[in-house]
Specification:
Number of helices: 42
Helix content: 55-70%
Radius of gyration: 34 Å
Distance between the termini: 57 Å
CATH class of one domain: Alpha Beta
Structural class: mainly alpha
CATH topology of one domain: Rossmann fold
Strand content: 5-15%
Strand order of the largest sheet: 2-3-4-1-5
CATH superfamily of one domain: P-loop containing nucleotide triphosphate hydrolases
């Protein structure tokens, strides 16, 4: 795919150029900035704007070669003979002036000089004279570090020449640029990685993207572009960086090499090692950046690509020497900071392939406190050469579990449990991680419970025994048994430690959400996050961020959709790409889930596609079923029958996953609905709702039953939804119940109230469907005016749902009162089913099907099946044509 690189993030500069060009007092526009920031690209666009405005334009490019020839860069613009032998500027000006004046009907010539500092002295003087004589409007580019020839250095100090300092793109502009270049959405963390590596330098962005694509590391997975490997430095990018670093004297270059391996470093330490003079030279060259950390000044390289280039070209023996010197230096200082020991151990391991086992284990322990599981795995694996211990097995086993190596994690943790004594305080932690790995990583929840029970009987430490009781409840929660988890926790009175309370929250809060106590869960998640964040030792316990994910889940099910979306987006953006991959999977899943409930179907598909890509990249199999179910639902609601069926089929190829199992049937049901089989879809939803009722997933049960109502059978779910609304906290389930009751009774005013209620929650697709039903109900009652008003409101709501095409929106403008049976038959017929096939599917006679079809044709104003599919489509309403606010929901009487 050829990539086009549009101009992005420069609207203000272009507007400023247009203002300057139209100002008769202005004579120039100079674009100043670092190499690769996009000066020439902006200047090209300025030249195009000048041409569009009717001005004559010309272009000259100054180079090192043309710098050696008087008027060399301008020779192609001068009259014949000028500049060959005669370089007398008086003569040149006398011959050029009448030509320029003759061409200046719409204003002076717009002359673009690229790389102005490389003009030869004669050209520089000549250009300056042309500007002063108002014979040209100068557009030029200047590198930040360049020195201008005499006469040009004061150009922008004159009132008539405007200087613009071009900065690197911010993250949002890089996101826009990548989306336009790649012609599709880009994973948020991928945007962040490219922006951080490039610092928004357009040239660096371009080279990083091209390098990543060529290496197969930047790929389109499930409709979302994402990095599945490291960013790659292209030869051109390496040459650009090397050219900037290559002019340094040897001592300064050696200082940069040291900093490339050791950064970040304290300023005083670096001064002691390389000397103040070298640091001052590097700082003057713009190669260093400094920040305050308490009372320390911390030094780093000014650009990430500088470090990448220096490390890549560093000789192996130089690298080894500097690494060992770094380790010796840190050890000599006593490794006063936590990261010092980790860096010392890592440096020795990289330099020589060996380090002291105690140093490795201690450093792995410290890395674990920082949740740096990749480093934990590397250090602990190296220490394993001296034999297994309970602590080493715990560190390595947890790290392997967190990075997704679940089979090896089970082997390591089983070995660690075997060497641990019954009174070993680490035994409970080993079992906690092992049971979590068995449940999440290997889908062996029954074995996880058995391992936990065996260890609970074996262990003698009372604190450890208490933790394993809490661990059992956690396993039950995520094994799809929230009621059993809450029952296991019920007898437990006050807990002995903040850690124990945090462990309880990991089991209890998601179970509260699942069983409908959503508001209680929101408050509990807040308390748990704060308390766990203060724990000094968080080994063998899930990250506090899990409480944030659970809170998002709870907010969504309370009906606080805007709050849930805002928190999920903030958490996603704050999660580093180095974090364990499952965290970003769950956050993107929650973003997609919330967007789906809000009716943002394309947005939901984008987030769920990213979540699925992450699952596939890191072999996170279980949660991928949840993602695929919702992805299929989003595709079905968008009318993409093939994609909905593909998601369902892919889900069926993956192992069973017990957590929120009933919700995994949504995609299957909606794939059937998209294909026109509404009765089949309702059967799937009913079976899933019954499963939810037996396992305690009241929230999932309510969603599933409400979808039965949405697909044409509200009367059958009214009682159960009413009971669930009484048992569940928050507004969402109550909104489901009131809508089903209104739809079953066919009360138009109640349907309007339901639409309003959904709209207040932010569930615009549900609000639009309810408004459509209200319009149909008003028409049945003979109130055409109210029907039209609600039809218009339904259309406006549907237009905000990013292309929604659900059965309940089938008559969003042409308000047609189809019965549930008529809609079932019409949907199947619109999909191409014969009357005989429809009759067999719905257990009706062919004559009855044909009679219903004739009634449908009459109501829709069509003559046969060929027109039926179009008549059943939602009306296409352009969001751009909508008023600034939705039509009022109150029905004109």
């Amino acid at each position: 795919m050829p990539l086009q690189w549009p101009l992005v993030g420069r609207h203000e500069e272009l507007e400023l150029f247009s203002e300057t060009l139209s100002d008769p007092r202005a004579h120039g526009f100079v674009i100043h900035g670092a190499a690769g920031v996009g000066k020439t690209r902006l200047a090209d666009q300025c030249l195009a704007l000048a041409d569009e405005s009717g001005r004559n334009v010309a272009r000259a490019t100054a180079t090192e070669g043309s710098r050696q020839i008087p008027l060399g860069a301008l020779a192609h613009l001068l009259p014949p003979g000028i500049g060959d032998e005669r370089c007398d500027l008086v003569t040149v000006m006398s011959e050029v002036r009448p030509v320029l004046l003759a061409q200046a009907r719409n204003g002076p010539l717009v002359l673009f000089v690229d790389d102005l500092p490389l003009l030869d002295t004669t050209s520089a003087t000549f250009v300056s004279q042309l500007v002063d004589a108002d014979l040209v409007f100068l557009v030029s580019t200047v590198r930040s570090e360049a020195t201008l020839a005499p006469g040009l250095d004061a150009l922008w100090h004159r009132a008539r020449v405007r200087r613009v300092d071009l900065e690197d793109l911010d993250r949002a502009a890089v996101d826009t640029l990548l989306h336009m270049v790649l012609r599709g959405p880009v994973e948020v963390t991928t945007v962040t990685d490219i922006w951080r590596a490039s610092r928004g330098n357009v040239l660096f962005v371009r080279e990083l993207v091209l390098g990543a694509i060529d290496a197969g590391h930047l790929v389109d997975q499930h409709g979302v572009w994402r990095l599945n490997g490291a960013l790659v430095t292209t030869p051109r990018l390496a040459q650009l960086v090397a050219a900037r670093l290559g002019a340094l004297p040897p001592a300064a270059a050696a200082a940069l090499d040291r900093l490339a391996l050791w950064e970040p470093m304290g300023l005083s330490t670096l001064e002691d090692l390389v000397g103040h003079a070298q640091l001052e030279l590097l700082d003057h060259a713009g190669l260093l950046t400094m920040r305050l950390d308490g009372r320390r000044q911390i030094v780093s390289l000014s650009h990430p690509m500088h470090g990448e280039t220096l490390r890549a070209r560093m000789p192996a023996l130089t690298r080894r020497r500097l690494l060992l010197e770094h380790a010796d230096h840190l050890d000599a200082l006593g490794a006063r900071r936590r990261e010092d020991a980790i860096r010392s151990a890592s440096a020795r391991l990289e330099a020589s392939g060996w380090a002291d086992a105690d140093l490795l284990v201690g450093s792995a322990r410290l890395a674990r406190y920082g949740h740096d599981f990749a480093t934990v795995e590397r250090l602990a694996r190296a220490a394993l050469r001296d034999g297994m211990t309970s602590e080493l097995g715990l560190l390595l086993g947890e790290a392997l579990h967190e990075i997704g190596s679940n089979v090896e994690a089970e082997e390591v943790l089983a070995a660690a449990a075997a060497v641990a004594a019954d009174d070993d305080p680490l035994l409970a932690h080993i079992i906690e991680i092992r049971s979590r790995n068995l449940m999440w990583g290997l889908f062996r929840s029954d074995e996880a419970l058995a391992v936990n029970a065996f260890a609970c009987a074996r262990i003698t430490d009372p604190v450890g025994k208490e933790e394993l009781i809490l661990n059992k409840a956690m396993v039950l929660t995520y094994a799809g048994r929230p009621l059993d988890a809450l029952a296991a926790l019920a007898p437990i009175a006050a807990l002995s430690t903040p850690r124990a309370r945090s462990l309880r929250a990991h089991a209890e809060v998601p179970a509260l959400v699942a069983t409908g106590l959503c508001a209680t869960a929101v408050d509990a998640a807040d308390i748990a996050f704060v308390e766990q964040s203060d724990l000094p030792n968080q080994i063998a316990i899930a990250d506090p961020g899990v409480h944030v994910i659970t809170k998002i889940y709870a907010l969504t099910e309370c009906g606080r959709l805007e709050d849930a979306m805002r928190l999920a987006m903030a958490a996603y953006e704050l999660t580093p790409t180095s974090a364990p991959p499952d965290g970003l999977v769950w956050l993107s899943h929650q973003l997609g889930r919330c967007a789906l409930l809000r009716g943002q179907l394309a947005t939901a598909r984008r987030w769920l596609g990213e979540a699925l890509a992450r699952c596939d990249a890191h072999d996170i199999v279980g949660p991928s079923r949840l993602v695929l179910s919702l992805l299929g639902t989003a595709n079905a609601c968008l009318g993409d029958t093939t994609a909905a069926a593909d998601a369902r089929d892919e889900m069926d190829r993956r192992p069973e996953f017990p957590f929120t199992r009933p919700e995994q049937e949504l995609g299957r049901a909606w794939a059937l609905a998209a294909a026109g089989d509404l009765p089949g879809a309702r059967r799937v939803l009913w079976a899933a709702a019954d499963l939810a009722a037996t396992t305690g997933y009241r929230i999932a049960e309510a969603w599933l039953l409400h979808d039965v109502a949405r697909l044409g059978d509200p009367a059958s779910v009214v009682d159960r939804l009413g009971d669930l609304a009484s048992a569940c906290e928050g507004d969402l389930v109550g909104a489901y119940a009131s809508h089903a009751a209104a739809a079953a009774a066919g009360r138009p005013e109640s349907l309007v109230e339901s639409s309003d209620r959904f709209a207040r929650l932010g569930a615009r697709l549900l609000a639009g469907e309810a408004a459509t039903e209200a319009a149909q109900a008003f028409q049945r009652h003979g109130d055409g005016r109210a029907a039209v008003a609600q039809g218009a409101r339904a259309a406006a709501l549907a237009a905000t749902c990013e292309g929604a095409r659900t059965p309940a929106l089938a008559s969003v403008v042409r308000v047609v009162p189809l019965t549930a049976r008529e809609r079932d038959i019409a949907n199947l017929a619109a999909q191409g089913e014969s009357s005989k096939a429809i009759a067999a599917r719905l257990v009706l006679s062919v004559r009855t099907v044909n009679n219903h079809l004739q009634t449908v044709y009459s109501k829709l104003g069509v003559t046969g099946r060929r027109q039926l599919a179009d008549a059943m489509e939602p009306a296409g309403v352009s969001a751009a044509a909508l008023p600034s606010s939705l039509p009022p929901s109150s029905s004109p009487r």
